Amino acid sequence: MITFYFNLAPNPAKIALFLEEAQLPYDAVPVDTAKGEQHLPAFRAINPNGKVPAITDGEGPGGKEIRVFDSTAILLYLAEKTGKFLGAPEDRPELLSWLLFIATGVGPYSGQAVHFQYAAPDAIPYAVNRYRREVERHYRVLDNHLAGREYIVGEGFTIADISAWGWLDRAPKIFKGEDDPLGKFPHLKAWFQRVDTRQAVSRARALGKDHNFKTASDEESRRALFPSNYPDSQG
């Protein structure tokens, strides 16, 4: 059985979508990162980096429980475990390229764009402009690539689409104040709408909505979420 440690952020959303698409049985364990639960020793034993998502799988080689952390690693692990959403064998180099493009570009720049617009204590126009423009650049790369394509890699839905969906779903928050943040990227917008109508998406979105995650921003939350900002933090 897979145990899935999550909150409502974009990276865990990717794993929720894969699990629902593949119809894998799993136990979902909420980790309230605003309360600092990701820094508890029990969770650090699963992910030493103290972030979600993470999974444990009791059906590893020889029946040994294994751990996997980082959303891209988890997607690859689950896809290889199930044989689903990997595309054709000849697509593997392309699949890895786009997965890492999302992992090292779309995700981090999107996260920083959100941070400097919503979490930074002081408004820093340069930082906001820098990260929003980089997100736009990455979107443009995807938009150009998706011209004439239904999916990112090969002929079908793969973990590259799942990975990208997790962050593209937050475009309205990333591009704060824009009514149609994907409007400038017609091929990307059409792709997102295509993925977003899949039945598993609604199930993935529903995960955790019945859990009372902390939403208030206070000193406890800031220390839990941004421990490197506090020299005395153990995070």
What does this structure look like?
The protein is 51% helix and 8% strand. By secondary structure, it is an alpha+beta fold. The protein folds into two domains: 2-84 and 203-229, Glutaredoxin; 89-197, Up-down Bundle (Glutathione S-transferase Yfyf (Class Pi), Chain A, domain 2). A four-stranded mixed sheet has the order 2-1-3-4, covered by helices on one side. Helix 1 (10-22) links the parallel strand 1 (2-6) and strand 2 (26-30). Helix 1 runs parallel beside helix 3 and helix 1 (10-22) packs across helix 9. The mean pLDDT is 95. Residues 209-223 have a biased composition (Basic and acidic residues). Residues 1-86 form the GST N-terminal domain. This is GST-like protein. Residues 209-235 are annotated as: Disordered. Pfam families: GST_C_2 (PF13410), GST_N_2 (PF13409).
Give the structure's gist in a few sentences:
This protein has ten helices and four strands. It has helices at residues 10-22, 41-44, 71-82, 92-119, 125-146, 159-168, 171-174, 186-196, 199-206, 219-225; strands at 2-6, 26-30, 54-57, 66-69. Strands 2-1-3-4 form a four-stranded mixed beta sheet, with helices on one face.
Percent helix, as a range, is 40-55%
Characterize the main sheet: 4 strands, mixed
Q: Number of helix segments? A: 10
Low-confidence stretches: none
DSSP strand content: 5-15%
Major beta sheet, strand line-up: 2-1-3-4
Overall form: globular
CATH class of the largest domain, named Alpha Beta
**Mean pLDDT across residues:** 95
- What's the name of the CATH homologous superfamily of the largest domain? Glutaredoxin
Provide the succession of SSEs: EHEHEEHHHHHHHH
Query: What gyration radius follows from the Cα positions, in whole Å?
Result: 18 Å
Give me the CATH architecture of the largest domain, please: 3-Layer(aba) Sandwich
Distance between the termini: 29 Å
Secondary structure class reads: alpha+beta
